[in-house]
C-alpha cells in the first residue's frame, strides 16, 4: 500500500508554518508560484507580508503566530477554516537551533528547543488531524533534520528534538496510511539559512533554501514518506547509523572538525 502524492499544487490549500525565512520561505514562494493557496505563519509578520504579496488576490493568508502558543495556533487554524473550509497540506517547517555542547548546556534553551521543535509540530498536527481523518484525505509534512539520525556535536538539545520528530512521523505514518492521510518526514542536511549561519565549522554538501524547497515539493508530489537531501550527505549519515558505536564515534571525530 503506497500513500498518495500531490499530482498538482494548483488550488491546493497549504498551511506553511515557519514561512518567514529559509526553507519555509522558499517553499512558500514555490507553492504560490505553482498556484496553491498558501496560509503563511511565523512569529515575524513583517517578513510574511512581502511573501503574501507574490500571490494573486485571495491566494494567500497571513497568520502570525508562535508555535509554542496553543491559542495562537488554534486561532490560525480557525482563520483558515473560515476562509477556505480546510487544508490539504500542513507543511511544518518552523524550528529553532541553538548550538549546545556539554560544557555550555543550558536547560532553559533545551526546554525551548523541545517546545518549539517537537511540541510545536504535535500541536499543529493535533489541530488538523480530525478534519483530515473525517475526509480520509490530506497531507502532513514535517521538517526534521539529519541531526536526528544519530548524535552529532553541538546538537545536545536540537538533535534529540529532531530524533523525536523521526519517531513521531514514523508512528503517524503507521497510523494514518490506512486512513488515506499521507505523512512526509523531511530530513534536510545543511541548508544555507539564518539558523546554519550560526555554525562556525565547515558544512559539507551545503545547499540553498531554494534547492531544499525543490526537493521537498518533488517528494510531496511523489508521495514519499522519507524525503531526505542532499542524498550524498543524508545517505552517508544513514549508513553511519548502522555501524557499531566505536566505529561511528571514530568517524564523527575524524571528519567533524569542531
Automatic annotation (TrEMBL):
The keyword Ubl conjugation does not apply. One of its GO terms (cellular component) is membrane. The keyword Oxidoreductase applies. Keywords: Oxidoreductase. InterPro entries: NAD(P)-bd_dom_sf, SDR_fam. GO terms for molecular function: oxidoreductase activity. Pfam families: adh_short (PF00106). Belongs to the short-chain dehydrogenases/reductases (SDR) family. This is Short-chain dehydrogenase. It comes from Polynucleobacter hirudinilacicola. The lineage of its organism: Bacteria, Pseudomonadati, Pseudomonadota, Betaproteobacteria, Burkholderiales.
Amino acid at each position: 500500500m503506497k500513500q498518495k502524492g500531490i499530482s498538482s499544487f494548483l488550488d491546493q490549500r497549504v498551511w506553511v508554518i515557519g514561512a518567514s525565512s529559509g526553507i519555509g520561505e522558499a517553499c512558500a514562494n514555490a507553492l504560490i508560484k505553482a498556484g496553491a493557496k498558501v496560509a503563511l505563519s511565523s512569529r515575524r509578520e513583517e517578513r510574511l507580508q512581502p511573501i503574501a504579496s507574490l500571490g494573486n488576490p485571495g491566494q494567500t493568508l497571513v497568520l502570525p503566530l508562535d508555535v509554542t502558543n496553543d491559542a495562537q495556533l488554534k486561532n490560525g487554524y480557525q482563520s483558515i477554516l473560515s476562509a477556505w473550509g480546510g487544508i490539504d497540506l500542513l507543511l511544518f517547517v518552523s524550528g529553532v537551533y541553538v548550538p549546545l555542547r556539554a560544557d555550555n548546556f543550558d536547560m532553559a534553551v533545551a526546554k525551548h528547543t523541545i517546545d518549539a521543535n517537537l511540541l510545536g509540530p504535535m500541536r499543529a498536527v493535533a489541530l488538523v488531524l480530525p478534519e483530515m481523518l473525517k475526509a480520509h484525505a490530506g497531507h502532513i509534512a514535517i521538517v526534521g533534520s539529519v541531526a536526528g539520525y544519530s548524535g552529532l556535536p553541538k546538537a545536545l538539545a536540537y538533535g534529540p528534538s529532531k530524533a523525536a520528530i523521526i519517531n513521531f512521523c514514523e508512528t503517524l505514518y503507521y497510523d494514518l496510511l490506512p486512513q488515506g492521510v499521507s505523512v512526509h518526514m523531511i530530513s534536510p542536511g545543511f541548508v544555507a539559512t539564518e539558523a546554519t549561519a550560526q555554525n562556525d565549522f565547515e558544512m559539507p554538501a551545503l545547499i540553498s533554501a531554494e534547492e531544499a524547497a525543490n526537493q521537498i515539493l518533488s517528494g510531496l508530489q511523489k508521495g514519499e514518506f522519507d524525503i531526505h537531501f542532499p542524498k550524498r550527505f543524508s545517505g552517508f549519515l544513514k549508513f553511519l547509523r548502522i555501524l557499531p558505536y566505536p566505529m561511528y564515534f571514530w568517524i564523527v571525530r575524524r571528519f567533524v572538525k569542531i
